[in-house]
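Continuing the series of single-chain predictions for the mutant panel. This is the parent chain; the variants come on the following pages.
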Amino acid sequence: MIVEICANSFESAVAAQRGGADRIELCTQLAVGGLTPSRHLIKKVVSKLSIPIHVLIRPRKGDFCYSKEELNIMKNDIEFCKYLGCSGVVSGVLRSDLTIDLIAIKQLIEAADGLDFTFHRAFDCVKDPLVSLENLIDLKIKRVLSSGLKPSAIEGISLLSDMNKLANQQIEIMPGSGINLGNVLRFKNKGFTSIHLSATTTTRKKISFIF
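Parent structure:
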């Protein structure tokens, strides 16, 4: 099972790699759900780590409905990630009616051509998850990060399992939120091939990631 760790600093990214993480989702401002990290941080992490780095592309906190100007910022950030050699980007765009903004997300996918594209937990705000998943399958997005429209993935495991069946290996469903040592095997036994987590504990200045 692939373990993706959400890291919001160079130190946490290094700790994740040392702890055995398979991939990093790099972001900042976890208190507001994560925002695009600085270019300096992206460059430093990509240059120093050997595991794949996926960068969160989210220009501000709040909803996931973006203006033309904000979308241009997001596309520029994606181009920068491509230039640096990042492995992927993580983003999502919705309409005010809580459907996926197909026009906007296509623009981001085009900008990310050649990179893995993960649709992030904006998905957990959609009004019809199965229809939305079909939209993303049609767009040939690599994966969806979701908690099954619940506060934690274990609470949403039923919907996540339905999504995994519908996906039928056409798109990867990656559970995230509240995954830990006590529940991770439930996701593995349900057939999920990757998980996303950011839980950490700090003891005597050492960082341990809770798998």
